[in-house]
């Protein structure tokens, strides 16, 4: 990286997979020159004068590949989480509504897997972060040697200043609580409904190492499936085409801007 160009550390991952927590932990623990308040797409330039800027945007996960590979100053932390926890998570802004589907989790997981192993791309499991924050912090520092530690992840939220939007998403800045990892067990009808719709949920859990086999699904026997329409339907073809075209232009503008820096 040229010393006169700023670095950017960007957080991605499926909605409700811990992206907000990771963003706040990074800001809390390391010396950044600036950050976005809550979310800022990587396709929007960081303010001028920044030397190390921190941002996050979950939807960028599936759109970032070309600009990431082209920009040596862009570094990414990608959050991964048990899909059962993701699809049973409810955002405070939408009480009573499950915020993400397995269809979305699967698309994001595929995009993360495609870049896993790249030296500027660090995949972090939410469960590892909650259980062993110190070990995760060491691994992030190993990937990104330019980070200067000010505090330990494990100290969070002592002394933290968390923006209002992030605090709402986190249900307040809280200490690490491993009991939340199994919280999906309180939403078995939702799991049943998603498994009926997406049978490959079982294979994904095994492939990702969350389960050794399909025996966990025995807890769903006799459970009545829960269905909702929110974010379940695949967007219409014309809408998908418009979105793809829009991000094609964003990618071109990003790379053109990068070449003129």
How would you describe this protein?
The protein has 261 residues and is an alpha/beta fold. The protein has a single domain (7-259), classed as 3-Layer(aba) Sandwich (Rossmann fold). Helix content is 38%, strand content 10%. The chain has 10 helices and 5 strands; from the N terminus they run βαββαβααβαααααα. The protein has helices spanning 19-29, 65-70, 83-87, 102-115, 126-131, 133-143, 164-170, 188-197, 201-207, 237-259, and strands at residues 7-13, 34-35, 52-56, 74-80, 121-125. The mean pLDDT is 94.
Mind describing the biggest β-sheet?
5 strands, parallel
Q: Report the span from N to C terminus.
A: 12 Å
Task: Identify the overall geometry.
Answer: globular
Task: Look up the CATH topology.
Answer: Rossmann fold
- Tell me the fraction of residues in β-strands, as a range: 5-15%
- SS class: alpha/beta
Task: Give the spatial strand order of the biggest sheet.
Answer: 2-3-1-4-5
The value of Rg in angstroms is: 19 Å
Q: Order of SSEs, N→C?
A: EHEEHEHHEHHHHHH
Put simply, the count of helices is 10
pLDDT < 50 runs, ≥5 residues: none
CATH architecture: 3-Layer(aba) Sandwich
Helix content: 25-40%
Q: Return the average pLDDT rounded to an integer.
A: 94
CATH superfamily caption: P-loop containing nucleotide triphosphate hydrolases
């Amino acid at each position: 990286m040229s010393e006169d160009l700023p670095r950017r550390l960007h957080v991605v991952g499926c909605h409700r997979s811990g992206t907000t927590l990771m963003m706040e932990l990074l800001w809390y623990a390391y010396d950044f020159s600036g950050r976005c308040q809550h979310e800022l797409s990587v396709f929007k330039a960081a303010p001028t004068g920044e030397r190390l800027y921190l941002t996050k945007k979950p939807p960028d996960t599936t759109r970032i590949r070309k600009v990431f590979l082209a920009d040596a100053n862009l570094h990414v932390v990608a959050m991964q989480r048990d899909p059962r926890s993701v699809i049973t998570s409810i955002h405070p802004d939408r009480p009573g509504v499950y915020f993400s589907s397995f269809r979305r989790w699967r698309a994001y997981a595929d995009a993360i897997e495609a870049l896993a192993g790249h030296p500027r791309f660090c995949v972090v499991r939410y469960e590892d972060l909650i259980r062993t924050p110190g070990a995760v912090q060491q691994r992030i520092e190993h990937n990104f040697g330019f980070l200067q530690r000010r505090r330990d992840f494990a100290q969070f939220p002592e002394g933290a200043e968390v923006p209002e939007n992030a605090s709402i998403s986190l249900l307040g800045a809280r200490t690490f609580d491993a009991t939340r990892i199994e919280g999906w067990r309180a939403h078995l009808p939702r799991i049943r409904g998603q498994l009926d719709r997406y049978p490959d949920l079982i294979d994904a859990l095994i492939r990702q190492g969350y389960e050794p086999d399909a025996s966990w699904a025995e807890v769903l026997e006799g459970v009545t499936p829960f269905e909702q329409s929110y974010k379940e339907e695949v967007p219409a073809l014309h809408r998908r085409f418009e979105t793809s075209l829009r991000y094609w232009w964003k990618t071109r503008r990003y790379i053109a801007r990068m070449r003129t820096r």
